[in-house]
Specification:
273 residues; mainly alpha; 75% helix; membrane
């Protein structure tokens, strides 16, 4: 499995799409977490989501600000990465080529999942690093005191971010295995994350009790609850304290393991051609 992990890591690093997705993630995180809110604060404009004051953009809010995008927008990019990593073998017709080299299906699949988990950690660390620089620049420009979160808070935030990011990457992987393609899993995954779960939260849940109750077991609301518990702004799409932070962490972890396990079963039992 270690050889599969090394091979998949090399493929991820050398694939231009991986770097493009990372760049999009960092640009979206920077623009919507710091640039637009700071422009609103500096310009004194009124409108939707202009309730964020300058203190919300300072370094002591780094953990919450870095986690805010992961439940929906940044998470959808991790889903795409998961689909590309696993589904690309179907699109290129290279599953048979890889398996004739000796490793079993599950060894190759495990190597891909470990590489995805490592990539998710790299993305989360990059988001935290960009957020730290942006908040430091804002604090310097506004002559505000620079107070960083404690080491424990940073480690907790990075761990929670990795958990959410890896869960979405595993969802992309299992969709790729289930549909044996790239385009359809990406499309369905994005429709669910960007449309369906938001419609359920904004329209269905306030009207139907069982939908509101069912939300407590879905991956998106639990990811949003985990981010909210660690200080993510409540006006960020997908961030809401639907359940407690401890329960949300357990549910997100359960989905992560469940997605990986379902993908393994499907890959082992079904034809790869």
């Amino acid at each position: 499995m270690s050889r599969s992990f090394r091979a998949e890591t090399v493929k991820l690093v050398r694939r231009p799409a991986s770097w493009l997705l990372l760049a999009i993630t960092l640009v979206l995180s920077l623009i919507f977490t710091y640039v637009f809110p700071y422009a609103g604060v500096a310009g004194g404009t009124d409108g939707p989501n202009t309730g964020r004051a300058l203190p919300a953009l300072l370094p002591d809010q780094l953990v919450g600000n870095s986690l805010g995008g992961l439940p929906v927008f940044l998470g959808s990019i991790l889903l795409i990465l998961g689909v590309l990593t696993v589904g690309g073998e179907y699109g290129w017709g290279t599953w048979k080529t890889v398996l004739t080299q000796g490793p079993s299906r599950l060894e190759v699949y495990a190597g891909k999942l470990l590489a995805l988990a490592a990539a998710a950690l790299a993305v989360v660390l990059a988001v935290f690093a960009v957020g730290a620089v942006a908040s430091l620049l804002i604090a310097s420009a506004e002559a505000q005191p620079v107070t960083w979160p404690s080491v424990g808070e940073l480690l907790t935030g990075i761990g929670a971010g990795w958990l959410i990011a890896t869960m979405w990457a595993m969802l992309g992987a299992v969709l790729a295995v289930a549909l044996r393609a790239v385009a359809l899993p990406v499309g369905l995954g994005l429709v669910w994350m960007l449309a369906v779960q938001n419609l359920l939260a904004a329209i269905a849940a306030p009207l139907v009790d069982w939908v509101a109750k069912a939300q407590e077991g879905l991956p998106g609301p639990n990811a949003g609850s985990l981010a909210a518990a660690l200080g993510a702004p409540g006006d960020t799409p997908g961030v809401a304290a639907t359940v407690g932070g401890g329960q949300a962490a357990l549910v997100v972890a359960a989905y992560l393991v469940g997605f990986a396990a379902v993908g393994a079963v499907l890959l082992r039992r079904r034809d790869i051609g």
